[in-house]
Amino acid sequence: MAAINDLRGFIEALEADGQLARISRQVSIRHELADVGAALARTGTGAGLFENVDGSRWPIFCGGIASHRRTAIALGCQPNEIIDVMDSVLDQANGIAPVRIEQAAWQANRVSGDDLADFDLPIPTHSRGDGGAFITGAVTVAKDPVSGRGNLGYNRMLRLGPTRFGFNVNEWRDVGTFWKSRDEPDSPFPIALAIGLDPAIMIAAGVKTPVDELFIAGAIRGAGIEVCKGTTVDIDVPASAEIVVEGMLHPADRKPEGPLAEFHGYHGETWNSPTFEVTSISWRDDPIYQTIVPGWYEHVYLGNILPREPLLRRFVRHLDPTADVHIPPYGNGFLAIIQIDRDNPGSPKNLAMAAMAAHINIRNVVVIDRDIDIHEPSDLHWAITNRVHWEDDVFTVASAQGHEMDPTADTRGVGTKVGIDATYKRERRDYGERVAYAPVDLPGYLA
Ligand SMILES: Cc1cc2nc3c(=O)[nH]c(=O)nc-3n(C[C@H](O)[C@H](O)[C@H](O)COP(=O)(O)O)c2cc1C
What we know:
Blueprint: H1 7-16, E1 20-23, E2 27-28, H2 32-42, E3 47-50, E4 53-54, E5 60-62, H3 68-75, H4 82-90, E6 99-100, E7 109-112, E8 134-135, E9 139-143, E10 150-153, E11 157-159, E12 164-167, H5 174-180, E13 189-195, H6 199-205, H7 214-221, E14 226-229, E15 236-238, E16 243-257, E17 271-283, E18 289-290, H8 297-305, H9 309-319, E19 324-326, E20 335-339, H10 347-358, E21 364-368, H11 377-387, H12 390-393, E22 394-401, E23 414-421, H13 442-446
Parallel strand pairs: 1-3, 2-4, 5-18, 6-14, 20-21, 21-23
Antiparallel strand pairs: 3-5, 7-17, 8-11, 9-10, 9-13, 11-12, 12-17, 13-16, 14-15, 16-17, 19-20, 22-23
Helix pairs in contact: 4-7, 4-9, 6-7, 9-10
Bound molecules: flavin mononucleotide.
């Protein structure tokens, strides 16, 4: 398999592995595309490449990082090596600096000035509860005006007009810290949006870190990520991008923006957000637009699973060096599963406490044995149903600090954390071994 260094290479690799669904039937850019993208992720069918979108001049891709198998393809490893790879690339000592080049494929076509008013970016309206058409799959590229370091992140952007967007940014995001560090914090602040990227850059952009996330993407690829200066802004933008949108953030010009399907599975609130004014749009020949179906698997993988599993595993392995961990996509980052070789009857509860402390988001922790498939929700349910005596095996920590968007917590994120020891307590009652039928090559029997 050729090395992946852009979205096209990723799409090829997915297709070679049977992980790409090409949708040639026409779909509407309003809801239908997201409905199909969500179904592809839910059923584990593959990423979606929509080749005929009513309302889009370009094909639209989604769902590249919406499963373990596809994430492994993106990272160039086996599914069971994902946490090891992420642990290694998140280590700052392994970061690899980006490499500046003079020309990028996205410089081939460009629209700016008055022409922008007639140029429609193909922005889907995703969930029926969303407040409009949102850019969700763009990586925001910014530069620290003090240190000059770059930064990647995600910001939902609501289309307000042909060149104007509402730009959602939490108060602790680096891009906000950057503009506030200037003598005139409310003056326009340049950013670029890179759309259609090497998945290494998509994965790196989901990491909250005080270094340039391009170093993490470089560590994933084992080589510096090529960047090229923006056309109207002095920012180094990934050269592999399919589409680059440049412009100015207006921190003090605020407009209502939202709601949008959120990682927790409800719709977020409407915010009074800064606005973003587009100054230039550039694109490769025959570009592919990329979107993330919000509030769905890829959103959770990028924001809550891949950047968080390594530290969770470190916390848990401090107590049990052989324990494995998983943050499943259907748990929205609030659920952690710990798998152990059970020994001491008390240790599952200690491990659950370690997991709760690893990340503020983690609220429910289930500890399981090795005979449960950590990636199989029905297996987890079997363990909870058949190995948990509720009075003894469940404990709660009331009024603990969680994520402020946790739907079960109060608006400051204060809520109850729950630990569930779903391991087999043979000392309570020994039922022998669990029923297990050997795996078979089913297609071979059905042929
Ligand atoms: C798909 C996705 C969408 C996100 N949308 C937003 C958003 O709208 N506003 C925001 O402040 N953070 C959002 N985030 C979170 C940040 O972009 C992300 O945590 C990033 O790593 C910020 O890191 P930084 O502060 O180091 O730049 C989103 C994350 C993901 C994965």
